[in-house]
Please model this.
Amino acid sequence: MEEYITRDIHIINTETGIPSFETNRGRSWIDLTLCNSKRTQNIRRWTCGEESRADHKTICFDIESRGFEGNAKYFTQKRYNTKVDNWGTFERNLVKNLVKKFECWTDPYNLTECDRALSRKVNHCTYIEVTHKPSSAITAVCDA
Model:
């Protein structure tokens, strides 16, 4: 890793005192945010939050980008074009993805039955499953 990092790759992490990985067996600052020297100057407000994705904490940072007018624009996460008028396709794909993630063996075109099946599954899931599965389903459909 050290050899890889020395090739124009920089560690962006700043010391926050909050470990990036924590379980009942221990904690560590194992997670790294890496960036090349060209983008290093654009990284702002790196933080390791208290929120957790499984055993790893959420790492957040802003990437500053200079627009044509010289104004700084901050992008804190992936962005999607919501002006495209494909909401019917989006809804169908989201329902299919949710049904698959929650292993509901129902017709994804029957929204009433999908809603019932998903409700039953969600009631028997852990907190992590209830937050992760819908989030990953939405992200997958948006990426597609």
Notes: The first strand starts at residue 9 and ends at 11. The chain has a mean pLDDT of 78. The chain has five helices and seven strands. Residues 17 and 48 are 9 Å apart (CA to CA).
